[in-house]
Amino acid sequence: MNPECVGPLANIDIFTSEASSFTALIRKFDESPILYDGPNTQEGLVNFAKKYEMPIVIDVKEKMIDKLFSGERASVFLFVHSREEIKQMHDEDPEFLATFKKVATDLRGDYYFAYSGLKRGIEQRISDVLGVANVEVPTIFIAKGNSFDLVKYKWDRSFDEFNEETLKDFLDRYEKGLLPKYLKT
Questions:
Q1: Mind listing the pLDDT tens digit for each residue in 65-112?
Q2: Cα three-residue angle 30-36-41, rounded to 5 degrees
Q3: In angstroms, rounded to a whole number, what is the distance separating the alpha carbons of residues 25 and 12?
Q4: Where are the alpha helices (DSSP H) in 2-93?
Q5: Would you list the domain boundaries of the chain?
Q6: CA spacing 20 to 30 A to 32: which of 41, 129, 135, 157?
Q7: DSSP readout, 104-173?
Q8: Average pLDDT per run of 10 along the chain, which is 185 residues long?
Q9: How far apart are CA 90 and CA 146, in angstroms?
């Protein structure tokens, strides 16, 4: 183990073998280990570790909040009524969640992707902060910043139109500054 290379990235361990000249990230989620094949520099390794330090789609929990609202990257939230609804959605329309995960995989390192209910503990606090409480769900929000400087954007289409192309278009319009800010709290 060589954790001093990158600082405190709590969700991963870094293993380096000088004898075999490889470096790998070992995680307790998604696929693991992941072999690193980038430049043999601290900056290269740190960037790689940051890209893969979180799950592809994050299940919102108290310990993840600081990362999701760090301002480092925008977070893309899929909101549903409850955690039970995520399972029901998966059972009824597995393509819906598979599409969200596919886009999250394609854009890994550019955004954090997360799903959340609305009713319990930290989920309710997040939905209150983002102004989701009076919005029809499922819905998607983009949030960037921290509690003092949070900018948010709401999915602007019907979920009947939800697919990989429309989600990527939504994120592309966000990147280009073409989405109106969501001002409700």
A1: 888 888 889 999 998 877 677 667 667 766 788 899 999 999 999 999
A2: 135
A3: 6
A4: 42-52, 65-68, 83-92
A5: 3-52, 57-175
A6: 41
A7: HHHTBTTEEEEEE-SSSHHHHHHHHHHT-TTS-SSEEEEEES-TTS-EEEE--S-GGG-SHHHHHHHHHH
A8: 40 55 74 80 84 86 84 89 70 79 94 88 87 84 86 92 96 96 83
A9: 31
57-175 maps to which CATH number?
3.40.30.10
Q: Which two tokens stand for residue 12?
A: 């991963």
Residue among 54, 133, 123, 121 nearest 86 (CA): 123
Whole-angstrom distance, CA of residue 31 vs CA of residue 11: 13
Pick from 78, 40, 39: which is nearest to 167 by CA?
78
Residues across the chain: 185
Residue that the structure tokens 């280990």 belong to: 33
